[in-house]
Amino acid sequence: MAEITYRSPGVYTTEIDLTGPVSAQPVGTPAGVIGTANEGPAYVPLTVGSYSDFAAVFGATDGEKFGPLAVSQFLKNAQALTYVRVLGIGNGKQRDSDSGKVTNAGFVVGSQQVQDNGNVGRNVDGVNFGDLGRTHFLGCYMSASAGSAIFSDAGISGVGILAGSGSHPIIRGVLMTPSGVIPMMSSSLSSLRTSNQPSSVVAATANAATLQGHMTGTVNIASQQFVLLLNGVIDPLNNVVTASFDMEDASYFANVLNTDPTKIEEKGHLLYTHYDIHPALAVITGSGLVGATLVLPSAGLEPVGFITSGSLARNTGDASAPNYESFEERFQHPASPFVISQAFGGAKWNLFRVHALGDGAYSNTHIKLSIENLKPSTSTADPYGTFDLIVRKWTDTDIDKSPVESFRGLTLDPSSDKFIARAIGDMYSYFDFDQADSSQKLVVQGSHSSKSNYIRVEQSVELENGQVPKEAMPLGVRGVNHLVTSGSAPLSAGTPSHQNISSDILKRAVQPPIPMRENVAVGTAPNKRYSPNFYWGIQLMQKRSVTKPNLIGLQDPTVAQWTKFFPSYGASNRDFSVGNNPGVADSGGVILDCDRFNNDLFTLERIQVRTGSDTKADPDQWVSASYVRDGNIITNPALKTRAFKLSDLSTQGNRKFGKFTFIMQGGFNGSNEFNKDKERLLNAAVRREMDDSTSQGGVSGPTVSAYRKALDIMGTKSDVDIKLLAVPGIRHSSVSNYAIDTVENRFDALYIMDIEEQDEMASVITSSVSIPNVGNTVTSFKGRALDTSFAAAYFPDVILPDPTTLTNVQCPPSVAVLGAFSLNDAIGYPWFAPAGFSRGALKDVLKTSLPFNKANMDDIYDADINPLTAFPSTGVMVFGQKTLLAAASALDRVNVRRLLINVRRKVRAVANQMLFEPNRQETLDKFSALVQPILQSIQEKSGVDRFKVVIDATTTTQADVENNTLRGKIFLQPTRTAEFVALDFVLTNAGDAFENA
Q: Is the pLDDT of residue 817 over 70?
């Protein structure tokens, strides 16, 4: 793919088109905002012209995030804003070449977390009381229900040591535990637990001497209930969990276990992901695995549940076994497996894959994809067929479809306007972190600009190089990414005496197969019929019956679990998750091939169809069509059945059935999900990182690095042009001082600054619950001794309604102040003061978080902080316009600094016209003639009282000419604002006082 690079000197502008069609083109110089968002690309500066365009890319306001709220305020009176979304990047440096990890990115399972009170670790630590936290695999032994082929179709065969084996260890959930907690299962066969009933007492000091339970636990076969013992959890209300493997039971483990990452230490565990299997499809049984002497028929109990972890020590891996604890990866966007062609000589070509434009975990389950309306070519002159790609809401159903975008008549013909990469777009921008610091930059790759608001296309190497046969059509998709858990090395098998079964059984534990559409029939005979609404491929409708797999009902929540991020570092260690690796050989008994694992490859050619008299698939017999997951379809002339062929689509009636759905996987926020402040990239996390003296703290801390890297991007003039800068809610000096440096280096933007607030105890406020103390806040701010005319500070917070949720939100002042600046520029000019009853009015603000008296106002203004306040019968307004310049100067006012910024920007624009012109008197005169009208216009609009332009031989000497330099001077006398109105009211008895006044 093409890559844009900058090599020769000059003025560069980069066009980054990620949004497709927009309703309002940006107008004017944008403001710049750095913040979080639900959606959209991260670390790519994107300029929008309206709030609706912003919401289409980054998502609407949600009552929590300050960045989108600031955007909504600014764009009420402006038409251009550049946003940089932040996500987790670790320390912002390139990944380790040996391990593949990104330092300080993501999280490590079991690491102790900073609590709300600032202490580290809620639970006891693993050094003194057992293991450090780990990733565990919770599962049970299962076999298919009567009539079901859920496992055999996927190539999962029963294993065991006894004759008649029919069950297999199936992973039902991925469980993470904090430091000091060891999860085990209660067992009626254990001397440590003589009953499978829950107990209120489980060892709070989890070590070998006090450990309760075993790796294999007893399950009540009727209710599928089991007891999970959380050794080491101090709270007796949380250390024993009774749950069920039955997804229809009220105590289903996915409903009972904790799924909030921020409560992992409070609850002693986190269910990171889970895989549902309806009891109609598979049953829990120890058939072939558990001897009769170990079954308690009177109680209906069998030792068929298990919980195990990796075979290696915590947070370690090697070439044979993954590291299941390390999620140390920066943010990722989700992508689909490769879409594939029909078989050519047994081989299926990779064609393209789909990537989400939005980074992070949210995009995993935002949309899904369908291919339909496949039309093979009937012309030898033009062998390329056509097809449609539909972008659908994740939550829609095949019966009630909700497409958000449709791309019709696509082709694989690279010369066509409908070529998929051209029609959808394969161009994308990203910040290349995997370079040395000095070489990190925005990179644009691809050849065709984006036409979609949601996706882009990646061509396969074979398609891009023209190796794919022209007759190829998208008939399927590679197997989804899957977990690497089975084989001789990955998982721990435990102690056989604890299991009383073969010691290697747990080394065969695998994910269940991802649900696929089995047929397109509804009802049962004699009323069985087909429905052309159904899509083949991944089925997101819950399967609740063997005979009626297409029952109209709930969407299957388990499919979303396949989209979750699992690390694949591509280094010396075996990956936790693998995909897009067809044909790769097994290793140590591990099936790595994404197509072979659980027979997850999907292709329309694995549909068994009935043919008609014309030898094509009979359009009226799709009621009998079925998907054969292993692809083993034997042609039967007597029954007129065979595998589906592309040529079947030449019949119009078959095309409505030749369609399939697939998903994207792997979006990740790159932040610490166990800590709410770090996950949300809040100021509290910045503060704690700066107080942390370890290698995970300071300016290498993940939250500090996230904002400083975004500021680096905003500070690059060749990529971003802004006139204002705000980082709403981030107040700590490690970021705000860096922001000041950024605008000073740019020399063409003003930073709107939120200051840290302090309470009565002179402690920094980290939540909206505490009330600021004006004196302590002012004293602390003065202590920073800031001195710059490129920043203005505002105080206090404000309360305003969120336009989406309609809830009242306490926001940092920069959110509202940005609105005042855009209002000022809409009804006035940048050199007017964005303050007062008209241009400084904050109409959306309900109130401030702290009312001021006159003494407060004096103290605040003396500290060069601009107060937000309200007067009787008026709304809230900005009542000051000081910059942070220490010396008395015209530049200690916002309007004057913005005047200079505006003049510099306009003069620089005309100065660009002088580059490479002859350095002679005519050029000097031309330059002067171009500058004069600019300043004349500003003077007429009350920006300057007087000005003088000197661009002649007195400023450009002969030495300058010989050094290829043109010099000039511009003298300005800014128009001052009236900020203090002093009136003397004189009372007199003498009439001549009026005559002499």
A: yes
Which has the minimum average pLDDT: 192-201, 222-231, 699-708? 192-201
Alpha-carbon distance of 500 to 191, in angstroms, equals 13
Q: Are 813 and 756 in contact (CB under 8 A)?
A: no
Question: Is 46 within 8 Å of 83 (Cβ atoms)?
Answer: yes
- Enclosing domain of residue 876: 31-86+681-884
- Residue listed under structure tokens 């994207």: 664
Q: Where are the beta strands (DSSP E) in 832-921?
A: 847-848, 865-870, 876-878
The answer to whether the beta carbons of residues 577 and 494 sit under 8 Å apart is no
Please indicate, yes or no, if residue 290 is contained in any of the structural domains: no
Residue-wise pLDDT tens digits, 3-50: 444 333 444 444 444 444 445 788 989 999 999 999 999 999 999 999
| Angstrom distances, CA of residue 936 to CA of 522, 641, 710, 948, 972 | 78, 85, 37, 10, 11
Sign of CA dihedral 284, 565, 464, 448: positive
Amino acid at 480: V
Cis? peptide before 796, omega within 30° of 0 = yes
Output the average pLDDT for the chain: 88
Cα-based distances in Å from 892 to 93, 590, 864, 884, 968: 37, 68, 9, 7, 25
Using CA atoms, how far residue 305 sits from 470, 800, 969, in Å, is: 52, 52, 82
Q: Total structural domains in the chain?
A: 1
For the segment 329-381, what is each residue's pLDDT rounded down to a tens digit?
A: 999 999 999 999 999 998 999 999 999 999 999 999 999 999 999 999 988 88
Q: 743 is written with which tokens?
A: 């605008």
pTM, 2 dp: 0.92
Q: Which residues contact 634 (CB under 8 A, 6 or more apart)?
A: none
842, 813 Cβ separation under 8 angstroms: no
Helix (H) or strand (E) holding 896: helix 894-911
Residue at 627: amino acid letter: Y
Spatial CB neighbours of 192, under 8 Å, sequence gap ≥ 6: 211, 212, 213, 214
Tens digit of pLDDT for each residue in 558-573?
899 999 999 998 777 8
Residue 720 lies in a domain: yes
The pLDDT of residue 127 is 41
N-term to C-term CA, the chain: 82
**CATH number for the domain harbouring residue 710:** 3.40.50.11780
Residue 818 lies in a domain: yes
Question: What percentage of the chain carries pLDDT values higher than 90?
Answer: 64
Q: Is 869 helix (H, G, I), strand (E, B) or coil?
A: strand
Distance CA 813, CA 264 (A): 34
Return the structure tokens found at 233.
Answer: 């959890």
Identify whether 833 is part of a domain.
Answer: yes
* Four-point Cα dihedral 677, 680, 682, 688, nearest 10: 30
